[in-house]
Write a structure and sequence with these properties.
It is built from eleven helices and 16 strands. With 346 residues, it is an alpha/beta fold. An eight-stranded mixed sheet has the order 8-9-10-7-11-12-13-16, with helices on one face. It is globular and about 75 Å long. The termini are far apart.
Amino acid sequence: MIQELISRYKRMRTEHYLCQTFQHAYAFIGMGQHSLTNLYPVLHYLGVPLKYICVTSERKAKLIEKKFMGVKATTSLDEILKDENVKGVFVAATPTSHFSIATQVLQSGKSLFIEKPPCKTLEQLDTLIDLQQIHRSPVVMVGLQKRYAPVVHLLKKRLDKEHLVSYDLHYLMGAYPEGNALLDLYIHPLDLVVYLFGMPEIIAYRKVNDNSYIIMLQHPQIVGTLELSTHYSWTNPKETLKICTRSGVYRLSQMDELSFTPKPPVLFGIPFEKLHHHQIKIENLFIHNNFTPILSNNQVYAQGYFNCISAFVNTIEGNSTINFTSLSDIRNTYTIMKQLQNECIP
């Protein structure tokens, strides 16, 4: 009896996956390491009908058609935009080219998924927002995947019910000579705190050296301190967030672990832990399981890439209306980045 129920459950789970099909065609612009590692595997797993892959090199285009059966490789963006069967375009090219490509996709009226950063400046972002409205692009999503990470979703639900006090975030990476650290790297932690706590204002900032910055932000209901740095290591990078609330302390580590430590009881201002031994209880709210190789334990899923891409495609297909990160949604993030660029981070 038990084995029959287990078999039935497994069969239903497999059939549910096989029934998730897509009717429209899609295109992908870019073929970098990030795309190959984090984005293409999700498209393959979901079974997204990828009709085109667009790159700048003719040599690379020929290699792509050998590697990806059934996909047309092209160096012409116009070819993709003129194809009425293509409903959505994924863009993960060189960050400096994103604004130009996004402009052309929006002008075509197609749906757009664009990796961060979608553009360099707040002014460019406003231009893209205007283009989306003028040309009525159905779905426009920015690939700030942390908003879609399961642990962030859980944390936000908990924080919405809390009385917030303070937080500190540490985003520590290795040297980054190949790009703009603010746009390419620091956009992640800045967008995360904007998403969790709302639009901030800069209270104070300090440039520690050419690669490290300490910033204090005041949000509507909480004050926080951020350490943003490329003065550490890529072998052992760190991204940690500690949030103090009236009821206790949340600790998030690299989208992999989330814990909550309740505050010890206090009566009439007297802490009980000074009167008798208090056992600290840590509630593990989320732990990334690296042992069982299933979808929900995959790093791409835990980091939010899977849910982000799935939301984009399913919204186009009419199976979902989730769109957490539109261009308008990240305007506050670009506003605070503009202030930091003017005052602190070059």
